[in-house]
Amino acid sequence: MQHGRGCGRVGIVARRSSLPKVLPARRIIQWAAAAIVILIGVRFTQWVVPHLAGRWPTVERPPGVEAFLPIGGMMSARHLLETGVVDAIHPAGLAIFLGICLMSVVVAKSFCSHLCPVGLLSELLGRLGLRLVGRTLRAPRWLDLPLRSLKFLLLGFFAWAIWAAMDAQAVAAFLESPYNVVVDAKMWLFFADPSRLTVAVLGVLVVGSVFVRDLWCRYLCPYGALVGVLGLLAPLKVARDEATCTSCQACTRVCPAALPVHRLQRVASIECTSCQDCVVACPVKGCLAVRPPRPARSSWWLRPVAAALVAVAIYGSVVVGFRAAGHWQTRLTEAEYHVRLQEIDSPAYVHPGGSR
């Protein structure tokens, strides 16, 4: 079996006979999260279509749709830090954003491998590629490194736009703007009637992910870049016990981020999503495990299922806390939404930067 190490070629990193095993609890969590996302999408469609057509819907707007507004979540987080006030228009978006950040700052970057529906789709497409062609391709190191920088450049742009290009008053004005009020409906319209360019880009990403593992996640996702940076601070990371390690390299072979796990005492890479594929593949119980920042031979470690549940419980506690505090439902009434969605194509609802 070959591994690309900057030799100028694309390396083979896995074969059909060696499909990596996945922690069952993590996969159950992923599928449950994906089912919730699909349900939210269906309910939002049932809500927004009648409003756009001038009718009254028979279902309520699902606040969870705000999970698809990460930029708004970042702006609401800044607004909260500066004013102590929770955005009343999209409070669920803020709750979800903070939950994602907190789970990833405790169990390193765990959102990507546990709750992100794109992460699940990316994994499944990669496994499909293994079944179809027997291998996954990896860019050589000289190309992989600059490509990975793209997601950080995108994150840097968003961070600059939110934290440097706008003052506190501008952020508050944007959160109250007509555009932000209906941004979830605009997002739905974007995907409900995509342009040819949008379809082409999505097609390239889907097909590319079959042959290049985690194409979007590894190279382009700014959200993944953000939680990856936060994950560097995480006290809970995968660690290796050198005393019990047999150097079989099973962990390295299955690592979706192509990390040399068998040589690391602590997997502190910004690319590690705490998926624990390496833990599942390790033949020595407790050799690889999610541990706090202690020596690798520490007897304290989380069982794989416990580590996954801790990550999800942290996210859930933030969402439940916001709901209990009354910061989940938007302050906008159904009647106000009805009027605004009838006007969604008017100049008043154009993005402050000039785009619809």
Write the topology of this structure.
Elements (H helix, E strand, L loop, with lengths): L10 E5 L8 H29 L17 H14 L7 H16 L3 H5 L2 H17 L1 E4 L2 H23 L4 H9 L1 H4 L1 H10 L3 H16 L3 H5 L2 H10 L5 E4 L9 H5 L22 H5 L6 E4 L12 H21 L9 H9 L14
Antiparallel strand pairs: 1-2, 3-4
Helix pairs in contact: 1-15, 2-3, 2-7, 3-12, 3-15, 5-10, 6-12
Structure description:
It is a single chain. By secondary structure, the protein is mostly helical. It folds into 2 domains: 11-232 and 309-349, no CATH class; 237-302, 2-Layer Sandwich (Alpha-Beta Plaits), CATH 3.30.70. It is 56% helix and 5% strand. The chain has 16 helices and 4 strands. The chain has helices spanning 24-52, 70-83, 91-106, 110-114, 117-133, 141-163, 168-176, 178-181, 183-192, 196-211, 215-219, 222-231, 250-254, 277-281, 304-324, 334-342; strands at residues 11-15, 135-138, 237-240, 288-291. The protein has a two-stranded antiparallel ribbon with strand order 1-2. The protein has a two-stranded antiparallel ribbon with strand order 3-4. α3 crosses α12 and α3 (91-106) runs antiparallel to α15 (304-324). The protein starts with 10 loop residues before the first strand and ends in a 14-residue tail after the last helix. Mean pLDDT is 90; it is low at 1-17.
Annotation, overall tally of beta strands: 4
Oligomer class:
single chain
Please report the distance between the alpha carbons of the first and last residues: 50 Å
Uncertain runs are 1-17
| Number of alpha- plus pi-helical segments | 16
Overall shape: globular
Helix content: 55-70%
